Amino acid sequence: MTASDRYSSPLAERYASRAMLELWSAYALSGAGVLPRLPLLRIGLVAICAIYLLRAAALPWMLARMPDRGTTFLVVSSLIVLLYGLIHLIGIVTAWPRLDGTA
After folding, report:
1. Helices then strands (H, E): number in the chain?
2. Which of 47, 28, 46, 48 is nearest to 37 (CA)?
3. Beta-carbon neighbour count of residue 74 at 10 Å?
4. Distance CA 5, CA 17 (A)
5. Are 44 and 27 in contact (CB under 8 A)?
6. What is the largest CA-CA distance in the chain?
7. pLDDT digits (tens, 9 = 90+) for 43-52
8. How far is 21 from 16, CA to CA, in rounded Å?
9. How many CB atoms lie within 10 A of CB 72?
10. Which of 19, 35, 45, 103 has the most CB atoms within 10 Å of its CB?
11. Which of 85, 3, 7, 30 is nearest to 52 (CA)?
12. Per residue in 72-82, pLDDT tens?
């Protein structure tokens, strides 16, 4: 099975991923006070941070079950999302008191 067989529309998947990352960026900027407050800001930021960190933690599982993806790609992408997750975590902890909308 090739990559093109697994996905009905790689272009649609790419656009969906881009839209998701743009939304996540908007939440990060809202949490930093650069953009107006978005709804469910605390929950959204914690969920986004958790997704990044869980994806990074899944590296051993992915190496064992997705050898066709390439070790270099899996390791580098895991390091990138780990960095994103840690940056989000630092931002959440730092800004937590004012993220409730009352401060």
Report:
1. 5, 0
2. 28
3. 17
4. 19
5. yes
6. 54
7. 999 999 999 9
8. 9
9. 8
10. 45
11. 85
12. 999 999 999 99
98 contact partners, CB below 8 Å, separation of at least 6 = 33
- Rg, C-alpha atoms of the chain: 16
The closest alpha carbon to 74, from 64, 59, 57, 55, belongs to: 59
Hey, what are 28's tokens?
A: 């990060």
Structure tokens at 16: 């969906």
Cα dihedral: 41, 28, 73, 51 (round 10)? -10
pLDDT digits (tens, 9 = 90+) for 38-74: 999 999 999 999 999 999 999 999 999 988 888 999 9
Structure-token pair, residue 22: 């743009």
- Residues 37 and 29: their CA atoms lie apart, in Å, by 9
DSSP assignment letter at 66: -
Tokens encoding 71: 């070790």
Q: Which is it for the CA torsion 63, 53, 30, 43, positive or negative?
A: positive
Give the DSSP letter of residue 58. T
